[in-house]
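hey m, so remember when u said the tokens were messed up on ur end? i reran from scratch. heres the input so u can diff it against urs
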Amino acid sequence: MRLSRRFAPAFAALAFMMVLPYDAVPHTRVVHGKPPVPQPFGADCRTMVQGSHVTAYCHNPYPETDQVALHIECDRWWDIDTDTDPVDAGPAMTVRLTGRCWEEVRSAWVTHQK
């Protein structure tokens, strides 16, 4: 009998822990109606590397403006990598982004931002 009195608080805490998480679980919100349809976004970009020069042409066929920026990673450790300032590519607009390294180009890519 003495053993059960000693563990009574532990049993009560265990029972409380088994019940509490179920009630404390947040419920998912139910949204009535149709979910919003995602709008297409993002300019289509072509990147060309010629020696140490990089050129990217970005055409935006969508109605929202896309801010595009060119990023160039140079191959040599001492060559400084380049990031251009973001340029607005408006609807039905094509923009040209350019940059270069002193020596070889390791990689080049374009980022998009609304």
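this time it looks ok to me. The helical segments are 2-24. if urs says something different then somethings off w ur setup not the seq
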